[in-house]
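Much of our argument rests on the idea that a fold can be written as discrete symbols. In the encoding step, the backbone of a single protein was reduced to a row of integers, each denoting a local shape. This step matters because it turns folding into a mapping between discrete strings. For completeness, the protein is quoted in full, as a sequence line and a line of structure tokens:
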Amino acid sequence: MEATALSVGKSVLSGALSYAKSFVAEEVALQLGVQRDHVFITDELEMMRSFLMAAHGDQDDNMVVRTWVNQVRNVSYAVEDCLHDFAVRLQKQSWWRIPRTLLDRRCVAKQMKELRIKVEDVSQRNQRYHLIKGSSSKPTSIVGQPTISSTTMSAADDARLLRQKAKMDLVKLINCKEGALRVIALWGTSSSDLGELSIIRSAYEDPMIHKNFDCCAWITLMCPFNQTYFIRSIIRQIYVNSLQETGEEGKSVIGAHVLRMMATMKEDGLTHEFKRYLNFKSYLIVLNGIHTIEEWDCIKTCFPSNKKGSRIIVSTEKVEVASLCIGAEDEALVHKKLFVDRSLYAFYSKVSQEGSNSEEKGSTSYVTRSVVNNSAHKNILTRMETMATLEESRLIGRGNEKEEIIRLISNKDLQQFHVFSLWGMGGIGKTTLVSDIYQSQEISSMFGKRACVTVMRPFNSAALLESLIMQFRDKNEDTEEIDLRRCLEGKRYLLVLDDLWSIGEWDAIKQYLPETAASCIIVTTREENIAKHCSKDERNIYPLHHLGPDDARALFTKKVFKEAVSLDERYPELVEPTKLILKKCRGLPLALVTIGGFLANQPKTAFEWRKMNEHISAEMEMNPELETIKAILMKSYDGLPYYLKACFLYLAIFPEDQQIARRRLVRRWIAESYSSEVRGMSVEEVLDSYFMKLISRSMILPSQRTICSRKGVDSCHVHDLIREIAISKSMEENLVFTLEEGCNLNNQGIVRHLAVSSNWKGYQCEFENIVDLSRVRSLTVFGNWSSFYISDKMRLLRVLDLEGEWDLVDHHLHHIGKLVHLRYLSVRGHVGIRHLPNSLGNLRQLQTLDISGTRITKLPRAIIKLVKMQGILASGRQWTSHGVEMPRGIWKLKALHPLRVVDVSVGKTILQDIKMLTRLRKLGVTGINQRNSQELCSAIACLSSLESLSLHSHSLSGCLDGLSSPPENLQSLKLIGNLVKLPEWIQELKNLVKLKLERSRISEHDAAIQAFGNLPNLAKPGHPTSIGLLVRW
């Protein structure tokens, strides 16, 4: 998976390159006489981007490559900032008078030369150190890095020491003082690897081991598995070993006649006799090369559990087989890394305290994790940790979901082939739930063939198909001669594909699976769009949501106290700290179980629990018992493409529990140049799709949907634990810094986005010294306003977002005109704001102006200078129906697409201006009356791109009849005011999906309802997708 530095570097570089290649930048370079430097810089940036796009994810973990990527990012910022600054200064005619002075040109030329040197230097470092080669299919080693051929004797000695330590760890597991039969499953990258097998062999041949067991055997399994041959191989080894231990073959061996008899027995009764023989002995059996759990199911029936301290060691290449061989449902599954260089892991069930040795006594369920170099192994282990962690959540809070899915699968009316998709964020319990369903008696009895497989990273279709064949085949079939489709043809089968990550993975698997009648495939995934691709029937798509408050509390308390406990009665002092922890977990089973398990072994005091809640981010970083949470959630983050990572990290700006409006977020992304037009889609449409992709991937969660939401989601929030990842990663890359109570007041250097929390009470000197304000691109204030927040040093500020506070007044904005790079300005909700300063006209880059909820009734005439303006949002507060009076000449703002709410009661000129804004997609109008209604209808008819129209007046009766040809693309219509009769033209709106009528007094109800029924795309009340029709008579 691609790490953060590489993703952020790609995103920043793409933005800089996009602007450098734009017509505006080229024209500025031409006018300033620096076109040669501009061309060189653009070409170098393009080459750097090619290198970054060719980089591998694991190269980002190399510190030298990471340093170079950070340098590329910083120089990309510098290029974009410099070119933007030239463009802005060129527009200031008072400074750049014609003819421009030689001194001015020299100043620009000097800056471009310095920038060119920086770009050239960074570019040459890649070539100098051979960091990333675009033509290479594999990561290139760093010059000077030791190779295999230069390995020293010291390294060889270290390897021997590591093998010796691994052997001793395995010996300790085998010699653990526990009477019950214990299975130890060993999983490594390859069971034929001499390094791994030598560890197992040396432990097996240790004299101390053989002294503790009556009989021992080492068996390499043959394929296909033959139980009779298997037992006879063990018998022969036990017999030979017994002879060797006596020192001479002629000497009597205890039980030798029994072994000889069994060696010649027929299949009937052999297994029974073998088990009877072993029942009175302590035995050690090593099984090398188990491939499927079905093989293990046959093997385990051959061995008695005789309470004599016997051990079975299973060696396998498949992590799922290793974990399932343990099969201890009532004990904690543990995996422990034995060998660092060759990822060798031991899986075993945690022994009881009574039977443990001194090393394990008093221990609790734990997972020992180390750095795994191979990403596939890392993903596998993380998944195993999730399954083990969520084991105890199986019976709490998911009963209804389990019953519903089983009902759908077992529905006798559904005799066709079906694919069921279960989707939800990481840690939500998909794997646990589908495992319960797969193992349930109701389901297992319905299908002749069954298989369950986790799709591993990186995806390997051949390995996955081999695993499916091994599970689906009959016991006596040769796997090399089996075709999966032929094996399943005509058979009713159940297949579980757990953890799909892409549509391509599904397509690669699906072609080998026949659509046999009444067969069923269950898919789990983190992405909604993948779930929809796999299951074409919406009824078979099942989103898994967070646990409700009661279930979350029950799961948490059971994990902490090992039983159902009433906190109010037994631990009243823990009630409030529990609420804080549950709020942080927000119904995520993984977090509830993991944190609950950790607190189970801590003092049960309010102080300890509050401390946990306050330091949850640090605990996830440093506490081995809690890092599973971050590992699972990080998988979702790591799976994001680089352009979505940049958008996601931007969310670290917003405080905990913040409801973030979609429009606010998307318009800020536009101001930050997070995308450009793509294949005919506007920038807003592209970034809207990014927003929905983040929701589809459960990185952001939709807030409550309302009937007024045409896209289905008007706002979102971020899960507290996901937000911790955004904060952590954005701080690593110097993207976001938040001034808040208790924050680090040391100089943070260059930070691109600055947020001021509501609890920060600092002074101007702190504000100006903590970060380099000259590089800040966005300032978001959530607390009380201070005049020093608008600083002359913020010469590159693009976003000033002051939404939501109540203490801002007119004079606080007097110096706003100094922020000449500003693209987004929001004073939304500040009732103290009544006027905007004339200096607003200096903001020639401004794209969005949001003054909704203020008391502004008239915009200054200077606004018509802002030709880059794309959106003016000026709806009044709920206690007033007045809009905002626009100055004459608003037609010059050709790029406007949302414009609301305009007060047209003052004259007809504004309607003539609106008529010329042909790019308008959203329009809100108030002040409609009989005198201006004809001009209004004429203006609306000319707005062919209009998608949303809101008309507000005390009385709309008779004012809308003059509209003969409404915009055919209109999708949303709001009519607020006294309306006696529905306009005839409404029936022509075939693309209308949302209609809101408020304060209407329509007399002909039946005719109105019939008109609604003739609109094909309008959602109706009571319909499952009803989001469109709201009528208040």
Remarks:
- The chain has six domains: 4-129, 159-363, 398-543, 549-631, 640-723, 918-1033.
